[in-house]
Amino acid sequence: MELRDLKSFIAVAQHGSFTKASQQLFVSQPSLSKNIKRLEEFLQVELLERSTRYVRLTDAGRIVYEQSKKALLALEEIPLLLNDLKQIHSGSIKIGIPPLIGTLFFPELARRFHEKYPNVQLELTELGAKRIWELVDNGHVNLGFVVLPTNETLFQMKPFIEDEFVLFIHENHPLAGESEISISQLKDEKFILFSDEFTLHDLVIQACKDTGFIPNIIYKSSQWDLIIELVSSQLGITLLPKSIYKKQVNQQVKIVNLTETLRWNLGIITKKDSYLPFAVKEFLAFTERL
């Protein structure tokens, strides 16, 4: 059994396509097919169900796919373990981070970390927190910044920062002059929220349901600054963490405190029982000292 055959099989299984897999691996489709055929002959099972319309895993293919991923992860850990043995303060850390957390908190954290560890590279993947969970679980990133709570049976979690939600509203809105309001007072308002892949989306909807209504969502976006601009255009209102207000510069947008306590708790997760490179351990320890 050859390593390249396993990598070829995993790529086809993940993409469900020989074409996309060959593009990812930079090999020709005939070479890719040959690699997988050789693996099937070695294992004496059929791994893929092929047709002109799709490529699917067989029952045996699903078993080989899951075990192959584990085997490759174990092989990739060998140089990391050796680096730890040598105590080298270098390397790279793959970090999954939602764009909002990246904007609000990460630049200062990265600056301080770089001052202490200038030879460690930080590789960022910016996606919604729900996707970050998947990346950490699949081993595609070393750690992820997420909105809590999280699945603590799968992940080790370290608290990072707490904030609270407030109402973002146009200055001419009738509620803009209030010192605080209840979420229930927003039941007839038009909401502008983060997209479904962001946990902030679910948090706001659940907070509205807890006070007796389902919000009327008219716009969704993956960008907090676009959400603010839509509010400034008087197209709706939104609930966002208070720390965003310091970053936004639109003077037509005001904030109003909520009578309910709606918290935004952030944490850093790593996959439970997985090996953490030395640089990752240092990064986690560094965040605790801030």
UniProtKB/TrEMBL annotation:
GO MF annotation list: DNA binding; DNA-binding transcription factor activity
Family: Belongs to the LysR transcriptional regulatory family.
PANTHER family with a match to the protein in the record: HTH-TYPE TRANSCRIPTIONAL REGULATOR YBHD (PTHR30419), NITROGEN ASSIMILATION TRANSCRIPTIONAL ACTIVATOR-RELATED (PTHR30419:SF8)
Protein keywords: DNA-binding, Transcription, Transcription regulation
Entry's transmembrane regions: none
Any one annotated GO CC term: cytosol
Protein name, per record: LysR family transcriptional regulator
Domain (HTH lysR-type) ranges: 1-58
Native species: Lysinibacillus odysseyi 34hs-1 = NBRC 100172
